[in-house]
Amino acid sequence: MLLDTKTAIVYGAGGAIGSAVARAYAREGADVHLVGRTRVTLEEVARRIRHDGGAAHVAQVDVLDRAAVAQHADVVAADGGIDICFNATSNDDVQGTPLLAMQFGEFLRPVTKAVTAHFNIAVAVGRHMTRRGRGVILVMAGGREAIPRLGGSHVAWAALAGLCRQLAAEFGPHGVRVSWLLSPGSPGYDDDQPQDGTGPGEADDATASGETRAAGAPGTAGLLMRHLPSYDEVANIAAFAASDWARTITASEINFTGGAVVD
């Protein structure tokens, strides 16, 4: 198994992507700590992981509360260390409104929340990882293709990419990798791939990529591969990126947009 004996914290684990990643980590052998704002949703994800033979723990934490995030990380670290951090928390963005009609507070909100939450989390887990000389921090970010009416989302995603680069530069000499996963928007489903019941209705812990595609966001017609990733595919990429198979990947954007973004 890719993540055998590893300890992972998944923030935003009650959302569609966060829960899929948590289940993939558990399937690959990790001891998974589920963090989010809604305990009942997290408990359901934990129940499914345990039913499948995995190990899962639940904590209700406000990621904007730096002290609470640090306290939880301290508890996890004291029980064997933190090997993996996956952050899929939401940005509470306002989509569908042109910038010319948007209030500055609405525009700034996702930027402020994204930077605050991700900084709080990275610092909390990074302290423990750098002391141990190993660890992986992964961030779920949105796409960077030009899409109108996304409000402050693009600015938030650009800020997260910059934060990840800075973290990678400072944490790298201590053996800690930092990368971000670039999404084309909402994951899709192949016609022959059944949905697993963990869908986009969990707005309280929705992922940073957005669980419903905004007006003007690309469908499969705009993709080179004509295929949006499924939640399971996102989770598999996250499992690989967290594993030792990817141990030379850091300060990197992991592009699984199906060709929506081409460098």
Description:
With 263 residues, the chain is of the alpha/beta class. It has one domain: Rossmann fold (3-Layer(aba) Sandwich), CATH 3.40.50. The chain has helices spanning 16-27, 39-51, 66-78, 104-132, 153-171, 231-242, and strands spanning 7-11, 31-36, 55-60, 84-87, 135-141, 176-182, 252-255. A 7-stranded parallel β-sheet has the order 3-2-1-4-5-6-7, sandwiched between helices. β4 (84-87), α4 (104-132) and β5 form a beta-alpha-beta unit. α1 packs parallel to α2 (39-51), α1 (16-27) packs across α6 and α4 (104-132) runs parallel beside α5 (153-171). The chain is globular and about 50 Å long.
Defining key terms:
single chain, 263 residues, alpha/beta, Rossmann fold, 7-stranded parallel β-sheet, 6 helices, 37% helix
The overall strand count is 7
Tally of structural domains: 1
Q: Report the uncertain regions.
A: 188-218
Cα radius of gyration in angstroms: 17 Å
Average pLDDT, all residues:
86
> Would you identify the CATH architecture?
3-Layer(aba) Sandwich
- Strands of the widest sheet, in order across it, are 3-2-1-4-5-6-7
Enter the CATH topology name.
Rossmann fold
CATH superfamily: NAD(P)-binding Rossmann-like Domain
Spell out the helices and strands N to C: EHEHEHEHEHEHE
